[in-house]
Amino acid sequence: MYIWCTLLHHNLDDFYKVTPRFLFEQYDIYLKMNGLEKVEEKPKKQMYVEDFF
To answer: Is this prediction's pTM over 0.85?
Structure first.
């Protein structure tokens, strides 16, 4: 309920009408749009000039 009302700025009446799936989809969008999602960095493969020829 905190996420729905405070972070996503929806009213309390709508909270009881949505499914948990919709709530978490909205929250995932909120995290992505505000840069709060943890992103795992993949190790970069080191390449040399000889690899291109």
So the answer is: no
